[in-house]
Design brief:
Elements (H helix, E strand, L loop, with lengths): L20 H8 L3 E5 L2 E4 L1 H20 L3 E2 L5 E3 H7 L1 H4 L5 E4 L5 E4 L4 H11 L8 E10 L14 E11 L2 H21 L4 E5 L9 E8 L5 E6 L1 H4 L12 H12 L3 E3 L5 H4 L5 E16 L10 E2 L5 E2 L2 E8 H11 L1 E2 L2 E2 L10 E5 L5 H13 L5 E3 L5 H11 L3 E5 L1 H4 L3 E6 L5 E5 H8 L1
Parallel strand pairs: 3-7, 19-20, 19-21
Antiparallel strand pairs: 1-2, 4-6, 5-6, 7-8, 8-16, 9-10, 10-13, 11-12, 11-13, 13-16, 14-15, 17-18, 21-22, 22-23
The protein binds one RNA strand of 77 nucleotides through β8, β13, β16, α10 and α12.
RNA sequence: CGGGGCGUGGCGCAGCCUGGUAGCGCAUCUGCUUUGGGAGCAGAGGGCCGGAGGUUCGAAUCCUCUCGCCCCGACCA
Protein backbone atom coordinates (compact mmCIF):
# COMPACT_ATOMS: atom_id res chain seq x y z
CA UNK A 1 0.00 0.00 0.00
CA UNK A 2 1.22 3.44 -0.85
CA UNK A 3 0.70 5.78 2.05
CA UNK A 4 0.18 8.73 -0.26
CA UNK A 5 -2.90 6.96 -1.64
CA UNK A 6 -4.21 5.47 1.60
CA UNK A 7 -6.90 6.45 4.04
CA UNK A 8 -4.70 6.20 7.10
CA UNK A 9 -5.35 9.56 8.70
CA UNK A 10 -2.82 9.89 11.49
CA UNK A 11 -3.27 12.56 14.11
CA UNK A 12 -0.52 14.55 15.72
CA UNK A 13 -2.60 15.58 18.67
CA UNK A 14 -4.64 13.52 21.06
CA UNK A 15 -8.38 13.52 20.39
CA UNK A 16 -10.22 14.98 23.35
CA UNK A 17 -12.60 12.06 23.80
CA UNK A 18 -9.99 9.35 24.15
CA UNK A 19 -8.86 8.62 27.68
CA UNK A 20 -6.90 5.41 27.59
CA UNK A 21 -3.80 4.60 25.58
CA UNK A 22 -5.30 2.13 23.14
CA UNK A 23 -8.22 4.39 22.29
CA UNK A 24 -5.95 7.38 21.76
CA UNK A 25 -3.53 5.38 19.67
CA UNK A 26 -6.20 3.75 17.55
CA UNK A 27 -7.53 7.17 16.63
CA UNK A 28 -4.11 8.73 16.21
CA UNK A 29 -2.78 5.87 14.09
CA UNK A 30 -5.79 6.12 11.79
CA UNK A 31 -7.16 2.65 12.57
CA UNK A 32 -10.73 3.61 13.43
CA UNK A 33 -13.13 6.54 13.58
CA UNK A 34 -16.13 6.66 15.84
CA UNK A 35 -19.44 7.13 14.04
CA UNK A 36 -21.73 7.02 17.08
CA UNK A 37 -21.24 6.29 20.75
CA UNK A 38 -19.60 2.87 20.99
CA UNK A 39 -19.76 2.30 17.22
CA UNK A 40 -16.70 2.47 15.02
CA UNK A 41 -15.75 2.45 11.37
CA UNK A 42 -12.64 0.37 10.73
CA UNK A 43 -10.34 2.19 8.35
CA UNK A 44 -8.00 0.25 6.07
CA UNK A 45 -5.15 -0.29 8.53
CA UNK A 46 -7.47 -1.13 11.40
CA UNK A 47 -9.46 -3.50 9.25
CA UNK A 48 -6.26 -5.35 8.38
CA UNK A 49 -5.47 -5.85 12.04
CA UNK A 50 -8.98 -7.05 12.73
CA UNK A 51 -8.78 -9.55 9.91
CA UNK A 52 -5.35 -10.77 11.02
CA UNK A 53 -6.70 -11.49 14.48
CA UNK A 54 -9.82 -13.14 13.08
CA UNK A 55 -7.69 -15.35 10.87
CA UNK A 56 -5.61 -16.61 13.76
CA UNK A 57 -8.77 -17.37 15.70
CA UNK A 58 -10.19 -19.13 12.64
CA UNK A 59 -7.07 -21.23 12.07
CA UNK A 60 -6.94 -22.41 15.65
CA UNK A 61 -10.65 -23.20 15.74
CA UNK A 62 -10.38 -25.21 12.57
CA UNK A 63 -7.30 -26.94 13.89
CA UNK A 64 -9.26 -28.54 16.71
CA UNK A 65 -11.99 -29.62 14.34
CA UNK A 66 -14.56 -26.83 14.57
CA UNK A 67 -16.68 -25.77 11.62
CA UNK A 68 -17.10 -22.20 10.54
CA UNK A 69 -20.44 -20.87 9.37
CA UNK A 70 -22.01 -17.44 9.24
CA UNK A 71 -25.25 -16.54 10.92
CA UNK A 72 -27.05 -13.23 10.44
CA UNK A 73 -26.80 -10.20 12.69
CA UNK A 74 -30.58 -9.71 12.70
CA UNK A 75 -32.62 -12.34 14.48
CA UNK A 76 -36.29 -12.99 15.01
CA UNK A 77 -37.74 -12.25 18.43
CA UNK A 78 -39.67 -15.50 18.11
CA UNK A 79 -36.51 -17.59 18.60
CA UNK A 80 -35.67 -15.75 21.76
CA UNK A 81 -39.15 -16.24 23.11
CA UNK A 82 -38.62 -19.98 22.83
CA UNK A 83 -35.62 -19.88 25.14
CA UNK A 84 -37.26 -17.35 27.42
CA UNK A 85 -34.48 -14.85 26.92
CA UNK A 86 -36.45 -12.27 24.93
CA UNK A 87 -37.81 -10.81 28.13
CA UNK A 88 -34.90 -11.83 30.32
CA UNK A 89 -32.18 -10.09 28.35
CA UNK A 90 -33.27 -6.57 29.14
CA UNK A 91 -32.34 -3.21 27.70
CA UNK A 92 -28.93 -4.39 26.50
CA UNK A 93 -30.65 -6.00 23.54
CA UNK A 94 -31.30 -3.73 20.59
CA UNK A 95 -34.85 -4.40 19.47
CA UNK A 96 -36.18 -3.52 16.03
CA UNK A 97 -39.33 -3.86 14.03
CA UNK A 98 -39.65 -4.33 10.30
CA UNK A 99 -42.27 -2.60 8.11
CA UNK A 100 -44.85 -5.21 9.02
CA UNK A 101 -44.29 -4.66 12.69
CA UNK A 102 -42.57 -8.02 13.13
CA UNK A 103 -40.24 -8.00 16.09
CA UNK A 104 -36.56 -8.39 15.36
CA UNK A 105 -33.36 -7.87 17.27
CA UNK A 106 -29.71 -7.26 16.52
CA UNK A 107 -28.08 -10.35 17.93
CA UNK A 108 -25.98 -10.04 21.07
CA UNK A 109 -25.17 -13.78 20.85
CA UNK A 110 -26.40 -16.81 18.93
CA UNK A 111 -27.28 -19.76 21.17
CA UNK A 112 -30.93 -19.77 20.10
CA UNK A 113 -30.25 -19.46 16.42
CA UNK A 114 -27.74 -22.25 16.28
CA UNK A 115 -29.89 -24.51 18.46
CA UNK A 116 -32.67 -23.84 15.97
CA UNK A 117 -30.47 -24.71 13.00
CA UNK A 118 -29.33 -27.89 14.68
CA UNK A 119 -32.82 -29.06 15.60
CA UNK A 120 -33.90 -28.64 11.98
CA UNK A 121 -31.15 -30.84 10.64
CA UNK A 122 -29.52 -33.06 13.23
CA UNK A 123 -31.58 -36.10 14.09
CA UNK A 124 -29.27 -38.85 15.23
CA UNK A 125 -26.67 -39.45 17.89
CA UNK A 126 -24.41 -40.51 15.02
CA UNK A 127 -24.12 -36.86 13.93
CA UNK A 128 -22.68 -35.61 17.21
CA UNK A 129 -20.49 -34.21 18.59
CA UNK A 130 -20.14 -31.05 16.54
CA UNK A 131 -18.79 -27.61 17.30
CA UNK A 132 -19.65 -24.66 15.10
CA UNK A 133 -18.54 -21.08 15.24
CA UNK A 134 -18.84 -17.85 13.38
CA UNK A 135 -17.09 -14.52 13.43
CA UNK A 136 -19.79 -11.91 13.25
CA UNK A 137 -20.75 -8.45 14.46
CA UNK A 138 -22.73 -8.30 17.65
CA UNK A 139 -24.58 -5.48 19.30
CA UNK A 140 -25.07 -4.95 22.99
CA UNK A 141 -26.59 -1.66 23.98
CA UNK A 142 -24.20 -0.93 26.83
CA UNK A 143 -25.35 1.72 29.22
CA UNK A 144 -22.01 3.35 28.99
CA UNK A 145 -19.72 2.52 26.10
CA UNK A 146 -16.13 3.51 26.80
CA UNK A 147 -12.47 2.80 26.21
CA UNK A 148 -12.98 2.96 22.45
CA UNK A 149 -13.22 -0.42 20.86
CA UNK A 150 -12.69 -2.25 24.15
CA UNK A 151 -16.14 -1.48 25.39
CA UNK A 152 -18.09 -0.65 22.29
CA UNK A 153 -21.70 -1.43 21.59
CA UNK A 154 -21.06 -2.97 18.20
CA UNK A 155 -18.22 -5.46 18.30
CA UNK A 156 -16.79 -8.35 16.34
CA UNK A 157 -16.90 -11.63 18.20
CA UNK A 158 -16.00 -15.20 17.50
CA UNK A 159 -18.71 -17.25 19.13
CA UNK A 160 -18.67 -21.00 19.03
CA UNK A 161 -21.17 -23.59 20.19
CA UNK A 162 -20.60 -27.25 20.96
CA UNK A 163 -23.20 -30.01 20.87
CA UNK A 164 -22.51 -33.27 22.67
CA UNK A 165 -24.57 -36.28 23.66
CA UNK A 166 -23.74 -36.04 27.33
CA UNK A 167 -21.79 -34.26 29.99
CA UNK A 168 -18.63 -36.30 29.45
CA UNK A 169 -18.63 -35.42 25.78
CA UNK A 170 -19.25 -31.75 26.55
CA UNK A 171 -16.25 -31.70 28.84
CA UNK A 172 -14.07 -32.97 26.00
CA UNK A 173 -15.40 -30.24 23.70
CA UNK A 174 -14.76 -27.71 26.41
CA UNK A 175 -11.18 -28.83 26.83
CA UNK A 176 -10.58 -28.63 23.09
CA UNK A 177 -11.59 -25.02 23.26
CA UNK A 178 -9.24 -24.43 26.15
CA UNK A 179 -6.45 -25.78 23.98
CA UNK A 180 -7.46 -23.67 20.99
CA UNK A 181 -7.71 -20.55 23.12
CA UNK A 182 -4.30 -20.93 24.68
CA UNK A 183 -2.83 -21.28 21.21
CA UNK A 184 -4.76 -18.30 19.89
CA UNK A 185 -3.55 -15.91 22.54
CA UNK A 186 -0.01 -17.10 22.35
CA UNK A 187 0.02 -16.53 18.60
CA UNK A 188 -1.39 -13.06 19.13
CA UNK A 189 1.68 -12.25 21.17
CA UNK A 190 0.00 -11.75 24.52
CA UNK A 191 -0.07 -13.50 27.83
CA UNK A 192 -3.63 -14.63 28.43
CA UNK A 193 -4.40 -16.59 31.52
CA UNK A 194 -7.49 -18.73 32.03
CA UNK A 195 -9.24 -17.87 35.26
CA UNK A 196 -12.19 -19.57 36.86
CA UNK A 197 -15.22 -17.40 36.24
CA UNK A 198 -18.83 -16.85 37.07
CA UNK A 199 -21.11 -18.06 34.36
CA UNK A 200 -23.05 -14.82 34.20
CA UNK A 201 -26.58 -14.44 32.85
CA UNK A 202 -26.17 -17.41 30.54
CA UNK A 203 -25.80 -19.92 33.34
CA UNK A 204 -23.89 -23.16 33.74
CA UNK A 205 -21.17 -24.52 36.00
CA UNK A 206 -17.95 -24.91 34.03
CA UNK A 207 -16.50 -21.59 32.97
CA UNK A 208 -13.20 -19.84 32.39
CA UNK A 209 -12.44 -16.33 31.30
CA UNK A 210 -9.23 -15.42 29.53
CA UNK A 211 -7.44 -12.40 30.84
CA UNK A 212 -4.75 -10.57 28.91
CA UNK A 213 -2.11 -9.02 31.08
CA UNK A 214 -1.86 -5.30 30.42
CA UNK A 215 -0.82 -2.52 32.76
CA UNK A 216 -3.95 -0.50 32.02
CA UNK A 217 -6.38 -3.42 32.35
CA UNK A 218 -9.68 -2.97 34.10
CA UNK A 219 -9.29 -5.63 36.77
CA UNK A 220 -6.60 -6.65 39.21
CA UNK A 221 -5.32 -10.18 38.67
CA UNK A 222 -3.27 -12.61 40.73
CA UNK A 223 -1.48 -15.53 39.13
CA UNK A 224 1.28 -18.06 39.44
CA UNK A 225 4.46 -17.23 37.53
CA UNK A 226 4.23 -20.67 35.95
CA UNK A 227 1.83 -19.22 33.39
CA UNK A 228 4.57 -17.05 31.97
CA UNK A 229 6.64 -20.02 30.86
CA UNK A 230 3.93 -22.09 29.19
CA UNK A 231 4.14 -22.73 25.48
CA UNK A 232 1.04 -24.04 23.73
CA UNK A 233 1.96 -23.64 20.10
CA UNK A 234 3.83 -26.94 19.91
CA UNK A 235 1.84 -29.88 18.58
CA UNK A 236 2.25 -31.66 21.87
CA UNK A 237 -1.44 -32.12 22.50
CA UNK A 238 -3.56 -34.49 20.44
CA UNK A 239 -7.00 -32.91 20.40
CA UNK A 240 -8.51 -36.20 19.25
CA UNK A 241 -7.41 -37.89 22.45
CA UNK A 242 -9.62 -37.25 25.50
CA UNK A 243 -6.81 -38.45 27.74
CA UNK A 244 -4.35 -36.04 26.19
CA UNK A 245 -6.84 -33.21 26.48
CA UNK A 246 -7.44 -34.03 30.12
CA UNK A 247 -3.73 -33.99 30.83
CA UNK A 248 -3.37 -30.67 29.04
CA UNK A 249 -6.37 -29.17 30.78
CA UNK A 250 -5.02 -30.22 34.15
CA UNK A 251 -1.69 -28.69 33.28
CA UNK A 252 -3.19 -25.37 32.28
CA UNK A 253 -5.59 -25.01 35.16
CA UNK A 254 -3.57 -26.41 38.02
CA UNK A 255 -1.85 -23.16 38.90
CA UNK A 256 -3.43 -20.31 40.77
CA UNK A 257 -5.02 -17.53 38.72
CA UNK A 258 -7.85 -15.25 39.76
CA UNK A 259 -9.30 -11.83 39.22
CA UNK A 260 -9.81 -9.70 42.31
CA UNK A 261 -13.47 -10.80 42.51
CA UNK A 262 -12.47 -14.44 42.85
CA UNK A 263 -9.24 -13.88 44.69
CA UNK A 264 -8.66 -16.16 47.68
CA UNK A 265 -5.97 -14.92 50.06
CA UNK A 266 -5.64 -18.27 51.81
CA UNK A 267 -4.88 -20.18 48.62
CA UNK A 268 -2.79 -17.31 47.31
CA UNK A 269 -0.51 -17.58 50.31
CA UNK A 270 0.50 -21.08 49.13
CA UNK A 271 1.74 -19.82 45.75
CA UNK A 272 5.51 -19.68 45.75
CA UNK A 273 6.04 -17.43 42.74
CA UNK A 274 3.34 -14.80 42.94
CA UNK A 275 2.59 -12.35 40.16
CA UNK A 276 0.16 -9.48 40.31
CA UNK A 277 -0.99 -7.29 37.50
CA UNK A 278 -3.85 -5.77 35.58
CA UNK A 279 -5.92 -7.65 33.06
CA UNK A 280 -8.49 -7.36 30.29
CA UNK A 281 -11.03 -10.08 29.58
CA UNK A 282 -10.82 -11.12 25.95
CA UNK A 283 -12.41 -14.53 25.97
CA UNK A 284 -14.89 -16.63 27.87
CA UNK A 285 -15.77 -20.29 27.56
CA UNK A 286 -18.53 -22.11 29.40
CA UNK A 287 -20.57 -25.22 29.54
CA UNK A 288 -24.27 -24.83 30.16
CA UNK A 289 -25.76 -28.26 29.57
CA UNK A 290 -29.28 -28.33 28.21
CA UNK A 291 -30.21 -24.81 29.13
CA UNK A 292 -31.09 -23.95 25.52
CA UNK A 293 -31.41 -27.34 23.89
CA UNK A 294 -34.18 -28.41 26.28
CA UNK A 295 -36.58 -25.44 25.99
CA UNK A 296 -35.96 -25.20 22.28
CA UNK A 297 -36.75 -28.82 21.69
CA UNK A 298 -33.40 -29.87 20.27
CA UNK A 299 -33.20 -33.66 20.47
CA UNK A 300 -31.52 -36.49 18.63
CA UNK A 301 -32.36 -40.16 18.55
CA UNK A 302 -30.16 -42.40 20.68
CA UNK A 303 -29.04 -45.95 19.94
CA UNK A 304 -32.07 -47.39 21.64
CA UNK A 305 -34.46 -44.95 20.01
CA UNK A 306 -34.67 -42.70 23.04
CA UNK A 307 -34.62 -38.92 22.70
CA UNK A 308 -31.35 -37.33 23.77
CA UNK A 309 -31.13 -33.65 24.62
CA UNK A 310 -27.64 -32.50 23.64
CA UNK A 311 -25.37 -30.72 26.08
CA UNK A 312 -24.08 -27.40 24.87
CA UNK A 313 -21.24 -25.04 25.53
CA UNK A 314 -20.42 -21.54 24.28
CA UNK A 315 -17.02 -20.13 23.49
CA UNK A 316 -16.43 -16.45 22.83
CA UNK A 317 -13.47 -14.36 21.76
CA UNK A 318 -13.77 -10.59 21.60
CA UNK A 319 -12.04 -10.05 18.28
CA UNK A 320 -12.49 -6.29 18.04
CA UNK A 321 -11.80 -5.84 21.74
CA UNK A 322 -8.52 -7.68 21.18
CA UNK A 323 -7.30 -4.90 18.92
CA UNK A 324 -7.54 -2.51 21.83
CA UNK A 325 -6.27 -5.05 24.34
CA UNK A 326 -3.21 -5.83 22.23
CA UNK A 327 -2.37 -2.15 22.05
CA UNK A 328 -2.81 -1.80 25.79
CA UNK A 329 -0.27 -4.58 26.15
CA UNK A 330 2.09 -3.34 23.44
CA UNK A 331 2.77 0.38 23.19
CA UNK A 332 5.14 3.07 24.35
CA UNK A 333 5.27 6.86 24.36
CA UNK A 334 5.75 7.02 20.60
CA UNK A 335 2.89 4.75 19.64
CA UNK A 336 1.79 1.19 18.95
CA UNK A 337 4.18 -1.76 18.89
CA UNK A 338 2.40 -4.46 16.89
CA UNK A 339 3.22 -8.13 17.41
CA UNK A 340 4.34 -9.48 14.03
CA UNK A 341 1.35 -11.81 13.85
CA UNK A 342 -1.28 -9.09 13.71
CA UNK A 343 0.47 -5.99 12.37
CA UNK A 344 -1.42 -4.32 9.53
CA UNK A 345 1.79 -4.35 7.51
CA UNK A 346 4.88 -6.44 8.16
CA UNK A 347 7.04 -3.41 7.46
CA UNK A 348 6.99 0.19 6.39
CA UNK A 349 9.40 1.36 3.73
CA UNK A 350 10.27 4.94 4.49
CA UNK A 351 11.39 6.94 1.49
CA UNK A 352 13.24 9.86 3.00
CA UNK A 353 13.62 11.70 -0.27
CA UNK A 354 10.78 11.16 -2.69
CA UNK A 355 11.93 12.23 -6.13
CA UNK A 356 15.54 11.19 -5.61
CA UNK A 357 16.19 8.58 -8.26
CA UNK A 358 18.27 6.36 -5.98
CA UNK A 359 15.77 6.45 -3.12
CA UNK A 360 12.77 5.89 -5.36
CA UNK A 361 14.40 2.93 -7.12
CA UNK A 362 15.50 1.23 -3.91
CA UNK A 363 12.08 1.79 -2.32
CA UNK A 364 10.30 0.32 -5.30
CA UNK A 365 12.59 -2.68 -5.18
CA UNK A 366 11.81 -3.21 -1.51
CA UNK A 367 8.11 -2.69 -2.06
CA UNK A 368 8.05 -5.25 -4.83
CA UNK A 369 9.86 -7.76 -2.64
CA UNK A 370 6.89 -7.71 -0.28
CA UNK A 371 4.48 -8.25 -3.13
CA UNK A 372 2.81 -4.98 -2.24
CA UNK A 373 1.92 -6.14 1.26
CA UNK A 374 4.21 -3.66 2.94
CA UNK A 375 3.40 -0.01 3.45
CA UNK A 376 5.40 2.41 1.34
CA UNK A 377 5.69 5.88 2.81
CA UNK A 378 6.01 7.80 -0.42
CA UNK A 379 4.63 11.04 0.94
CA UNK A 380 6.50 14.24 0.24
CA UNK A 381 7.02 15.02 3.88
CA UNK A 382 9.99 15.67 6.05
CA UNK A 383 11.91 12.80 7.59
CA UNK A 384 10.73 13.60 11.10
CA UNK A 385 7.08 13.35 10.12
CA UNK A 386 7.64 9.95 8.58
CA UNK A 387 9.63 8.60 11.50
CA UNK A 388 7.00 9.79 13.93
CA UNK A 389 4.17 8.24 11.92
CA UNK A 390 6.07 4.99 11.49
CA UNK A 391 6.57 4.72 15.23
CA UNK A 392 2.96 5.72 15.87
CA UNK A 393 1.54 3.12 13.48
CA UNK A 394 3.77 0.51 15.06
CA UNK A 395 4.99 -1.48 12.08
CA UNK A 396 7.27 -4.24 13.40
CA UNK A 397 10.01 -3.25 10.97
CA UNK A 398 11.00 0.05 9.42
CA UNK A 399 13.13 0.04 6.31
CA UNK A 400 14.52 3.54 6.03
CA UNK A 401 15.81 4.55 2.63
CA UNK A 402 17.75 7.80 2.45
CA UNK A 403 19.94 9.39 -0.21
CA UNK A 404 23.06 8.75 1.87
CA UNK A 405 22.85 4.97 1.76
CA UNK A 406 20.67 4.51 -1.30
CA UNK A 407 23.61 5.25 -3.57
CA UNK A 408 25.27 2.08 -2.28
CA UNK A 409 22.11 0.01 -1.94
CA UNK A 410 22.18 0.41 1.85
CA UNK A 411 19.17 0.95 4.08
CA UNK A 412 18.61 1.36 7.76
CA UNK A 413 16.54 -1.35 9.39
CA UNK A 414 14.78 -0.51 12.62
CA UNK A 415 13.01 -2.96 14.87
CA UNK A 416 10.09 -1.10 16.43
CA UNK A 417 9.89 -3.26 19.54
CA UNK A 418 13.48 -2.75 20.61
CA UNK A 419 14.40 0.45 18.81
CA UNK A 420 17.47 -1.31 17.49
CA UNK A 421 18.79 0.12 14.19
CA UNK A 422 21.31 -1.38 11.80
CA UNK A 423 22.71 -0.31 8.44
CA UNK A 424 22.78 -3.06 5.87
CA UNK A 425 22.04 -3.84 2.25
CA UNK A 426 18.42 -4.07 1.17
CA UNK A 427 18.88 -7.74 0.43
CA UNK A 428 20.13 -8.40 3.96
CA UNK A 429 17.31 -6.37 5.43
CA UNK A 430 14.71 -8.31 3.49
CA UNK A 431 16.31 -11.55 4.54
CA UNK A 432 15.83 -10.61 8.18
CA UNK A 433 12.15 -9.82 7.72
CA UNK A 434 10.84 -12.27 5.15
C1' C B 1 -30.01 4.83 34.58
C1' G B 2 -28.02 8.46 38.72
C1' G B 3 -24.17 12.37 39.15
C1' G B 4 -20.75 15.79 36.52
C1' G B 5 -18.74 18.12 32.02
C1' C B 6 -18.30 19.55 26.89
C1' G B 7 -20.34 20.82 21.72
C1' U B 8 -16.86 27.20 17.94
C1' G B 9 -12.88 25.46 10.17
C1' G B 10 -10.06 18.50 9.58
C1' C B 11 -7.57 18.19 14.94
C1' G B 12 -6.56 20.83 19.69
C1' C B 13 -8.45 25.16 21.89
C1' A B 14 -9.64 30.74 23.16
C1' G B 15 -13.85 34.00 22.87
C1' C B 16 -19.36 33.45 26.41
C1' C B 17 -19.33 35.90 32.84
C1' U B 18 -19.76 41.99 31.16
C1' G B 19 -24.29 40.85 23.51
C1' G B 20 -21.77 44.86 18.62
C1' U B 21 -19.67 41.83 11.56
C1' A B 22 -15.45 34.92 14.76
C1' G B 23 -9.86 34.21 16.62
C1' C B 24 -5.15 31.22 17.81
C1' G B 25 -1.89 26.77 17.15
C1' C B 26 -1.50 22.48 14.12
C1' A B 27 -3.19 20.53 9.46
C1' U B 28 -4.50 21.94 4.01
C1' C B 29 -3.23 24.83 -0.77
C1' U B 30 0.57 28.23 -3.60
C1' G B 31 5.60 30.20 -3.90
C1' C B 32 10.68 30.55 -2.23
C1' U B 33 14.24 28.55 1.10
C1' U B 34 15.18 24.08 3.80
C1' U B 35 15.89 18.58 3.88
C1' G B 36 18.01 11.57 8.41
C1' G B 37 13.38 12.66 14.15
C1' G B 38 6.81 16.32 13.70
C1' A B 39 11.16 23.07 9.28
C1' G B 40 11.30 28.80 8.11
C1' C B 41 9.26 33.01 5.57
C1' A B 42 5.32 35.09 2.54
C1' G B 43 0.48 34.48 0.87
C1' A B 44 -4.38 31.77 0.35
C1' G B 45 -8.71 28.73 1.19
C1' G B 46 -12.00 26.72 4.75
C1' G B 47 -16.58 27.78 10.19
C1' C B 48 -24.97 29.51 9.02
C1' C B 49 -20.33 28.90 16.55
C1' G B 50 -24.68 21.00 17.44
C1' G B 51 -30.16 22.05 16.38
C1' A B 52 -34.98 24.67 17.27
C1' G B 53 -37.58 28.45 19.53
C1' G B 54 -37.34 33.06 22.34
C1' U B 55 -35.33 38.06 24.37
C1' U B 56 -32.96 42.25 21.75
C1' C B 57 -31.96 47.39 17.01
C1' G B 58 -28.27 43.39 17.19
C1' A B 59 -26.98 36.60 19.92
C1' A B 60 -21.20 32.10 19.59
C1' U B 61 -22.36 35.12 24.02
C1' C B 62 -28.64 35.84 27.65
C1' C B 63 -33.36 32.43 28.38
C1' U B 64 -36.22 27.77 27.16
C1' C B 65 -36.35 23.19 24.84
C1' U B 66 -33.79 19.49 22.20
C1' C B 67 -29.84 16.33 20.03
C1' G B 68 -24.94 14.50 20.41
C1' C B 69 -20.38 13.24 22.83
C1' C B 70 -17.12 12.51 27.16
C1' C B 71 -16.03 11.42 32.44
C1' C B 72 -17.37 9.00 37.58
C1' G B 73 -20.72 5.09 39.45
C1' A B 74 -23.92 0.40 39.17
C1' C B 75 -23.65 -3.55 34.60
C1' C B 76 -20.81 -6.34 30.47
C1' A B 77 -17.21 -10.43 24.87
Amino acid sequence: MRLSRSLIPTLKENPAEAQIASHRLMLRAGLVRQTASGIYAWLPAGWRVLQNIANIVREEQDRVGCQELLMPTIQSAELWRQSGRYDAYGAEMLRLADRHGRELLYGPTNEEMLADLMRQSVKSYRELPQTLYHIQWKFRDEMRPRFGVMRGREFLMKDGYSFDLDYEGAVVSYRKQMLAYMRIFQRLGVKAIPMVADTGPIGGDLSHEFIILAPTGESQVFYDAAYEAMDFTKEAVDHESPADLERFFGEVTKNYAATDEKHDEAVWAQVSEQREGRGIEVGHIFYFGTKYSAPMGLTVAGKDGSQIVPHMGSYGVGVSRLVGALIEAHHDEAGIIWPDSVAPFPAVIVNLKVGDAGCDALCNEAYAAFGGRALLDDREDRAGVKFADADLMGHPWQIVVGPRGAANGMVELKRRATGEKVELSLADALAKIL
